[in-house]
Amino acid sequence: MMKTFSNAITDLQLTRYPISSKDTLQAWDAADEYLIEFIAQSAKSWQNPIILNDQWGALSLTLHQKHPTVISDSFLSHQGIIHNAQVNQIASADVSVLTPLSELSESYDLVILKVPKNNSLLIEQLTRLYPYLSPNTTFVSGGMIKHLPPTLIETLEQFIGPTQASLAQKKARLFHTEVNTGSAIKKSALSSYKFTFLNQTLTAYGHANVFARQKLDIGTRLLLQHLPSLALEKAQHIVDLGCGNGVLGVCASIINTDASISFTDESFMAVDSAKRTWQKRFPNRQNVQFIVNDCLQGITTEADEILCNPPFHQQHTVGDQIAWRMFKQAKQKLVTGGALTVIGNRHLNYHMKLKRLFGNCTLIANDRKFVILRATKSL
Ligand SMILES: C[S@@+](CC[C@H](N)C(=O)[O-])C[C@H]1O[C@@H](n2cnc3c(N)ncnc32)[C@H](O)[C@@H]1O
């Protein structure tokens, strides 16, 4: 829902993305307000700001006249910022939105860090950024107190420099960090682990922001045990929806080596990880595509099989809205007779949703925590 964000510098019309009339949440929080207040009250003038993890443009569009570089791992955030820029008649060239994997090339005199939920992502962002900062850089971080990692100050001090916390304001807090040359430790944030599927040892790769990047998720593991019973051999096009590191899709391709396969996720780091997991097992295969998009929006050919371990939160917002969107889009993209297979926590009640949408839903397997459900698209 579009709402007016009046802050210490400007007024903006902002909405979260994708736009939904049922979404009543506002597209900024008190930490955004506090960060902007700090910038507005400072006597300094900056030439080259970088903003990390701005969700819907509250920070980057407020500062658009400074042409900020904006980093986000979320395709939905990229789209939300672009959409909100258009609504506020801000030229898209005013704000350059990159992913956490993009190479940086300039030095920055202002860093505004919206502290991410994931501490590994925070460390990766700090180590990538550090070479582009100088002792004159203003470095300010902010977040809602309930979302801040307990080790935040320690992490900022280890990777950037001495840090001081501000007073709390509307349940948000800012942190001011001195860029202290020489304090960063470089390390690769790409994780990998090995797992076994049909007697083959496979390697899964995961960048910092990727689900289950260090070991197989227990729900995914259960679905892998039952993958061979799904008759994937008949499929021509299989989709790994919300692919994360791509283990479901790679294993589906081991069962059916002829089908084309699409990996899709809204996280740039997830899709790049899935690509690495795939390339390790299938270095020479061509019939694969990797798509960063919202749910199935980037899939242009019909699918016979869609495999999905849906997310139950987007950043700090918990709920089954994304799963529901994934299920609805799956029904649209499936051929008649094609099937969506879902693994989920049993308390999420996906069974009811799938039955309502597809008119059928079969329980493939379950354990104390999870259910594997399969819904088939009928005529
Ligand atoms: C529970 S994880 C499953 C990852 C992987 N399939 C596995 O089983 O390990 C859910 C995935 O959905 C992705 N996701 C969240 N919102 C999405 C959206 N709107 N469109 C596509 N993928 C999304 C997340 O980035 C995450 O990788």
UniProtKB/TrEMBL annotation:
SUPFAM superfamilies: S-adenosyl-L-methionine-dependent methyltransferases (SSF53335). CDD domains: AdoMet_MTases. Pfam families: MTS, RLMG_N. Residues 2-180 form the RlmG N-terminal domain. It is an enzyme of class 2 (transferase). It comes from the Bacteria. It catalyses: guanosine(1835) in 23S rRNA + S-adenosyl-L-methionine = N(2)-methylguanosine(1835) in 23S rRNA + S-adenosyl-L-homocysteine + H(+). The keyword Transferase applies. It is found in: Cytoplasm. Gene3D superfamilies: Vaccinia Virus protein VP39. Residues 204-374 form the Methyltransferase small domain. Its EC number is 2.1.1.174. GO terms for cellular component: cytoplasm. GO terms for molecular function: 23S rRNA (guanine(1835)-N(2))-methyltransferase activity. Keywords: Cytoplasm, Methyltransferase, rRNA processing, S-adenosyl-L-methionine, Transferase. InterPro entries: RLMG (IPR017237), RlmG_N (IPR058679), RsmC/RlmG (IPR046977), SAM-dependent_MTases_sf (IPR029063), Small_mtfrase_dom (IPR007848). Belongs to the methyltransferase superfamily. RlmG family. Specifically methylates the guanine in position 1835 (m2G1835) of 23S rRNA. This is Ribosomal RNA large subunit methyltransferase G. The lineage of its organism: Bacteria, Pseudomonadati, Pseudomonadota, Gammaproteobacteria, Oceanospirillales. The gene is rlmG.
